[in-house]
Write a structure and sequence with these properties.
Blueprint: H1 3-18, H2 21-36, E1 46-53, H3 60-79, E2 87-94, H4 99-111, E3 118-120, H5 124-136, E4 141-143, E5 156-158, H6 167-177, E6 181-187, H7 190-205, E7 209-216, H8 224-233, E8 237-241, H9 246-256, E9 266-268, H10 273-276, E10 288-291, H11 300-313, H12 321-340, H13 345-351, E11 356-359, E12 362-366, E13 373-374, E14 378-382, E15 388-393, H14 409-422
C-alpha cells in the first residue's frame, strides 16, 4: 500500500470519528479510486520513450554517441522537473546494425513498452525499414541524421539535413573551390545510391564530370578495387558517402597509394568528429566534411553543450552533428509535450510542428509542411586535433526541401522502388 492510500484511509477514519455522513460518502469514493486505479495516467511518475540505435555491429562506431546525447538531454530535462511534472524514462534497445532487428525493436517499443515517442535510427536503411511500423501504429519517430531525402512522413520528424542542406551545397562548394571532375564512392545502400543520383544531376547542371561511381557493402573492408579506379581516373575530388567503420579501411588505403588531400581531396557526408576518433589523424587531415554543426562553432550555447557532454562522458569525448541533432531533438519534443499538455502521441505530433529551439548550431525550426528542420549549412576542413576548421557557411538556416527539383517526385519514387526491388525488398544490398 503506497503513502497516498495510507493518507486516504487516515483521513477517512478522522471523518468517521466526526460522524460527517456526506463527507464520509464522498471520501469513501475517493478511497476506492486510490486503491482500484493506482496505475492510471494520473498516478504515473514517468513518461516512457524509446531510444533505438545500433549499440553493436558496423554502425555502433557512430550510433553509440547519439544515444549518449539523447540521454544527456533527458537527464537535463529531468533535473529541471521533467515534463508535465513527470520524469522522462528512456527504454534503450539495440538495433544491432541490422534492419530487420530495427523493425522488430520498434514494434516492441510501441506495442509492449508503450512508449510515447521513439528517438532513433542512423542509416536510411534502418529508417525506411521502421517507417511502416510507425505509420501502422500512427506513432512518432524523431530521426537525427542527415539523409538522402525523397521522403515525407507524418510519423517522422527529421532533425538532420535534407539534401539541399548538405549534399547539394557540398557539390556546389566543391565545384567552386576544389575542381570539376568528381569520383563518387559509397556504401551500398539507399542513402549513398540516392545521394549520388542527386550529385550526378547537379554535376551535369554545373557542366562538371563524374569520372567514376563505386560502392562497397556496409561493414566491408574490401576497398582495393575502388582505390584502383580512383588512381586510374585521377579526379579532382572524391565525394564520400561510406558509412560506419568501412571508412577506416578506405582512408588508410588512400594514403597507402599516395592519394592525399593536396592532390585529390575527399569530401565526406558521414564522417564527423566522433568518427575521427577511430581514424588515424594522418589519414584524414586536410580532407573535408559538410554538416550543419561542428564542435568548433563559437557561441555560448555550444560551449555549454560541449562542457555538459564532456562532464558526463569524459574530457576526451567530442560532439558532432548527429550528436547535436539528437540532443536538440529531445528538447524540441519536450517543448511539444509541454505545449500539448498530454502524453498522447497523436497530439504531440501536432504540436511538434512549428517548434523552434536555440540549439548549439544556432536556431532550428520544424517546418510544418514536411516535418524537416531548417538548418544552417557548414563546410569543415579536418585539422590535426580531430576538429574542423569551418571554411564556409550559409550564414542563415536553409528551408528544407526533401525532394530535389532535378527530377519530379514521381521520378524519384520510381528510382527508390527500383533500388528496393533490386535488393529483394531491402533498403541495402544484401551482398
Amino acid at each position: 500500500m503506497d503513502w497516498q492510500t495510507i493518507k486516504c484511509i487516515l483521513q477517512f477514519q478522522k471523518l468517521v470519528n466526526q460522524k460527517n455522513i456526506l463527507l464520509l460518502i464522498a471520501f469513501a469514493l475517493g478511497i476506492v479510486l486510490c486503491i482500484l486505479i493506482p496505475q492510471t495516467e494520473f498516478s504515473q511518475k514517468s513518461i516512457k520513450i524509446g531510444v533505438l540505435h545500433s549499440l553493436t555491429g558496423t554502425m555502433a562506431i557512430s550510433e553509440k554517441s547519439v544515444v549518449d546525447a539523447t540521454l544527456l538531454a533527458i537527464e537535463e530535462i529531468n533535473k529541471k522537473g521533467g515534463i508535465l511534472g513527470k520524469k522522462i524514462q528512456p527504454i534503450i534497445v539495440d538495433g544491432k546494425s541490422d534492419w530487420g532487428t530495427f523493425a522488430q525493436q520498434a514494434e516492441k517499443l510501441i506495442t509492449q513498452e508503450k512508449v510515447v515517442t521513439v528517438f532513433g535510427c542512423w542509416t536510411s536503411a534502418s529508417r525506411k525499414t521502421v517507417k511502416p511500423v510507425f505509420e501502422k501504429h500512427n506513432h512518432l519517430l524523431i530521426y537525427p541524421v542527415q539523409y538522402e531525402g525523397l521522403e515525407e512522413s507524418p510519423n517522422i520528424v527529421y532533425t538532420g539535413a535534407a539534401p539541399n542542406q548538405q549534399i547539394i551545397p557540398a557539390v556546389k562548394w566543391s565545384f567552386d573551390n576544389l575542381g570539376k571532375r568528381f569520383f563518387l564512392v559509397g556504401s551500398d545502400y539507399v542513402f549513398p545510391r540516392t545521394a549520388n543520383a542527386i550529385i550526378k544531376d547537379q554535376v551535369v547542371a554545373l557542366d562538371g564530370k563524374v569520372l567514376g561511381e563505386e560502392y562497397i557493402l556496409l561493414g566491408s573492408t574490401d576497398v582495393d578495387s575502388v582505390i584502383k579506379k580512383i588512381l586510374e581516373t585521377q579526379p579532382d575530388i572524391i565525394l564520400n558517402t561510406i558509412n560506419g567503420d568501412s571508412n577506416i579501411a578506405f582512408f588508410k588505403a588512400l594514403r597507402k597509394v599516395g592519394i592525399t588531400p593536396d592532390h585529390i581531396p575527399t569530401v565526406s557526408f558521414s564522417i564527423a568528429e566522433e568518427e575521427l576518433r577511430y581514424l588515424s589523424k594522418k589519414d584524414v587531415v586536410g580532407d573535408y566534411a559538410v554538416w550543419n554543426y561542428f564542435q568548433s562553432i563559437d557561441n555560448i550555447k555550444n560551449h555549454v553543450f560541449i562542457k555538459s557532454f564532456q562532464n558526463k562522458y569524459g574530457k576526451n569525448r567530442v560532439t558532432s552533428d548527429p550528436i547535436e541533432a539528437a540532443y536538440f531533438g529531445v528538447y524540441l519534443w519536450a517543448q511539444a509535450v509541454e505545449d500539448a499538455g498530454t502524453e498522447d502521441v497523436n497530439i504531440i505530433r501536432e504540436y511538434i510542428q512549428d517548434q523552434s529551439y536555440k540549439a548549439p548550431e544556432g536556431v532550428v525550426y520544424i517546418d510544418s509542411n514536411n516535418q524537416h528542420t531548417w538548418k544552417t549549412v557548414r563546410v569543415g576542413k579536418i585539422k590535426a586535433d580531430g576538429q574542423f576548421e569551418i571554411v564556409w557557411n550559409s550564414d542563415k538556416p536553409i528551408r528544407p526541401v526533401p525532394y530535389p527539383i532535378s527530377r519530379s517526385k514521381a521520378e524519384w519514387e520510381i528510382f527508390l522502388n527500383t533500388l528496393y526491388t533490386g535488393w529483394n525488398q531491402n533498403w541495402a544490398n544484401p551482398g
